[in-house]
Fold this protein.
Amino acid sequence: DIQVTQSPSTLSASVGDSVTITCRASQSISIWLAWYQQKPGKVPKLLIYRASFLQGEVPSRFSGSGSDTEFTLTITNLQPDDSATYYCQQYSGQGGQATFGQGTKLEIK
Amino acid sequence: EEQLVESGGGLIKPGGSLRLSCAASGFNFRAAWMSWVRQAPGKGLEWIGRIVSNSYGGTADYAASVRGRFTISRDDLGNTLYLHMNSLKTEDTAVYYCSTWDSGLWGQGTLVTVSS
């Protein structure tokens, strides 16, 4: 099974800063990676799919990049509303499997 | 409006069985590949299984943690996805979400509590 390692596990930044979260897959998943945002008590919200495609009405402050085994989510001009836990998910379907990263809790100071 | 609505959660004793349902509306459910994802209290997201559309064979795959105990099925006429859970363990306690495989549509979740 493909393992996904997400880092860091926690992150603290100020309004207006930029942050980057990394996700590494144990084998190549091409661009089959998504990023989700989850706030406490809420349903996860899709931000990025196929590594770099912005979903729907997600602000352009969010961007994704990468392919193969290394991926990043970058959030620029941080806003208080960006405080949440972010998850990557590989959905290459290899072996019929998908996997979530462990999550990154982002605190806005 | 595209929507997924889960139901069927509740309190169940260890070793028991439960069936969750996920009613889909507003999109072509017949063509959709669907997943179940769970989240234990205070923990991260765990993908537990997927079923492909019947045009791709309608087969299901599972995470190792539930393989052999959980079964995913679908009723395309009724636009409903199911998760049949057997031999439940306390560690299966979680909010269970249904979702589309790759388009980011999720239900609101249903809580399953396994406890004696």
User: Anything to note?
Assistant: The first strand of chain B starts at residue 3 and ends at 7. The mean pLDDT of chain B is 97.
